[in-house]
Amino acid sequence: MNGITDKVVAITGASSGIGEATARLLAERGAMVALGARRTGRLDDIVATIVATGGRAIACEVDVTSPSAVANFVDQTVRSFGRLDVFIGNAGVSSLSPMAELDVDGWSSMIDVNLHGVLNGIAAALPVFQTQGRGHFVTTVSTSGIKIVPTQAVYAATKNAVRTLLEGLRQESTDGVMRTTSISPGYVQTELVDSIADPRIREQAKTSMAALGIPAEAVARAIAFAIEQPDDVEIGDLTIRPTRQG
Ligand code: NDP
């Protein structure tokens, strides 16, 4: 199956930012989309607008740190749309702070959501892909893992762990059943940095994001590009930055 029309795509972190933009774009281009996140009110609103314009979409409450919740998300997607063509492990959090602040709770939450959450996605989607004989696992990593800067050490570490994971998965998936794609965005205008605890770091991050950030739709288009390739073409790594980002 080529292109995007009629593909079934499950997206975590679809209640805002990149996940929301990706769900909207793929639905507009004819995909059946399952939107997963914790804020179900927002998911319901997004789904309602997609459906109102003729798209096909469902909302599912999912906390990606729970393996059973992610398995249930995949089950619900397959029950609603008959199969799963693409899983986009996109949910993420960024608790930025200098290492010396010892924000151990923030470190844990980034590992739980950004790394464990993606592993839970693989555990849920891989068996379905194997049964179907086809599938595509996409994940949102970051340029934070390419150029490591102060306050982003742990965030970058989780993103590079996922980059490594996906390359390992790719090496184990050369039988043609599954494609893997890691998208590395630079600054994108989303809510990602709004929850940073330290007000000084939060304001710095918000200022950089506002000054430089590209719209989430730009990343959605990059994800769509990876998905729309023919089954025998795999876009492995894709970096997408604001042109002026250092
Ligand atoms: P947003 O904050 O807008 O989106 C993050 C999404 O993740 C939300 O939908 C949120 O939904 C979801 N999420 C967070 N924790 C959980 C959880 N435990 N279970 C399920 N969903 C969860 O930010 P972005 O759109 O920017 O982030 C999307 C991805 O892109 C992240 O992985 C981020 O690291 C990555 N990225 C972002 C960049 C940027 O500059 N914005 C740059 C590079 C990468 P809810 O709270 O409803 O659960």
From TrEMBL:
A Pfam entry, by short name: adh_short
Family (UniProt): Belongs to the short-chain dehydrogenases/reductases (SDR) family.
Protein name, UniProt field: Oxidoreductase
Superkingdom: Bacteria
Organism: Cryobacterium arcticum
GO molecular function annotations of the record: oxidoreductase activity, acting on the CH-OH group of donors, NAD or NADP as acceptor
Keywords associated with the record: Oxidoreductase
UniProt xrefs under PROSITE patterns: ADH_SHORT (PS00061)
InterPro entries: NAD(P)-bd_dom_sf (IPR036291), Sc_DH/Rdtase_CS (IPR020904), SDR_fam (IPR002347)
